């Protein structure tokens, strides 16, 4: 129980008034940043990083990581109330969160989102606490074939488990992969599909696309439907919170499954985005009535939120232990660590115990304080909704534009965002799902690089994807998931069906 | 009206304090533009400068680091090119300024920017996994004997690491499969995990995994050994690493780390930054950083710098041409 002693030491480092105040400040800033579409965790942390240079490393990382937790919590608010994901990993939360809000169950959806965020983070922190040394050596097992297998798994689970027509998912994913190819190709060192334009050099930024596809297209759709207020008011009463919590044990399978997926993808840098989608799709797959998903089911909120937060939190582990950031925000925190003279790596755990365990302790405290804070301040953030839509819409468009601009300080990105807004609108009209598109845009590049590096390394044989137990089982699982509908059909014919044991009302 | 008055006040204050380089001073926050991703060697250096400038009050305006690592750093180059006349942006450049225009036909020429100063030279070291061969000779023998592709990791394609790999092949007669990763950090981890046999990372990129005993430095690609003699690991210092020439492989390469302003800025503006970065190289933060990351100290400015750049450019161009990396 060495870890336990060290953790207690971490709490001792943390429990000073100064640190606690910084924690609160960080959380409030984070929620704010999370609510604004596009601004998001990575940008928030990046903007506030210079503020912390005068602080000691422990206070600084506590504040920055609290901004991160805050942003993780805040992203859910706009997803549920406005159908605009504040963060890319909140996209899957909109699938059922928004329909719930439409049915007047916004408070329940929000409580579910916050609570499951909390549970996801908690599981991940527990994991970090007790498995840190072991996991850092596990992550080292990941070479190009393993990375590709994980990406393949994510893609396949989308096609095989998604609720939309398969061909539409594939169309959407292919378009995303195509756009992901724009810009510099790391493997050959050449430019692709830039057509001589310096603006296209950097490629299409994922966040710019997401803001347009989800935010702007939603505004366009709403305008078409005669400017009706589509956001939903919410205030959370203690009664609602307690009733949601009372039902929690019923969903333990979903929560556990999503936590597991999240931790796994966070540590093997698959990312919170992939985790939230995978969590959602699996919950749906194993549910009794999969067709009720997307119409406002509380499990549809639990599953992606738990996974996203478990992943967001556990992404810090490879960053601390190996210096590999599992997410964009982790990458910025990594930059911060170096400013304070701390070099992430296996030795960080040995040489800077105060710092590492102070940070881990702050994950526990930050999440508890964050949960309370976010439950009590929802009415404030949701009060934007009492303003008429005609006034809110321009504000949302402006904040989307600022968000898109701020990512790379590029005017071109605002035009791109508007373009994606139109694309999103058309896609929604003709029933092509947006999620596979965004997923392919974010993972396409990495999946391609991983595949080509595997091919260079193996001399061009596909056997490399079955060259050891780890990569072999992930690849096989991916292929099983891709053909899951067929396999499921065959199994169904012989009278066996995988069922979630839980009875779900509604 | 308030702002101009303040600016005049600030300018007079500077006049009184540093009579030599008075005249111009930034009126807006200054951006250090990094042509690489978060956590890479350029980013770390920019953060060090940011901290050194702020802690020692070398400038009134705040300084921010902006990461423009898109398209393997081409994003930063195009950004600087399009910021002509803007004295609030400083690029922290490395050899990509010569290589990218050649390999990817990026319409960029460093002569269009305003040179400020060369602040350091970065080394390259041949590393292998600590479980691998112990000397360069054994390493070359292992590479020659390997039946499966012998994998060399590195950052990017047709860049410094790739060029070095090609020259290693030419000098030793061994054959490597070059795996281009997105960053030096990734190349380091992949070596530790035994997914590659070796890499040619900068000292800073492999420092932590070396200290943890996971990789072994075989030789440094320079005429002379690194000068820092304090122990980095339990038994070794940077100076203990032999040069590749000593080990019978005559390949040398050093990479510049230099500061540039956009084109068409005034002489006073240029002078301000020359002075600023000169002061930075005097700070404890800079000295500490140089030693920790095993960088070679250097400070060139004005004519010396331009001459250095021209020679360095010619050298890089001939290496790139010989390696066959120049786009037609």
Automatic annotation (TrEMBL), chain A:
Pfam families: TctA (PF01970). Keywords: Membrane, Transmembrane, Transmembrane helix. InterPro entries: DUF112_TM. The chain crosses the membrane at residues 20-40, 60-82, 109-135, 147-163, 200-220, 251-278, 319-343, 355-375, 387-408, 414-443, 464-487. The keyword Transmembrane applies. Residues 20-438 form the DUF112 domain. PANTHER family: BLR4373 PROTEIN, TRICARBOXYLIC TRANSPORT PROTEIN. This is Tricarboxylate transporter.
From TrEMBL, chain B:
Residues 1-22 form the signal peptide. Keywords: Signal. InterPro entries: BUG, Bug_dom1. CDD domains: PBP2_Bug_TTT (cd07012). Belongs to the UPF0065 (bug) family. PANTHER family: BLR4371 PROTEIN, TRICARBOXYLATE-BINDING PROTEIN. This is Tricarboxylate transporter. It comes from Bradyrhizobium nanningense.
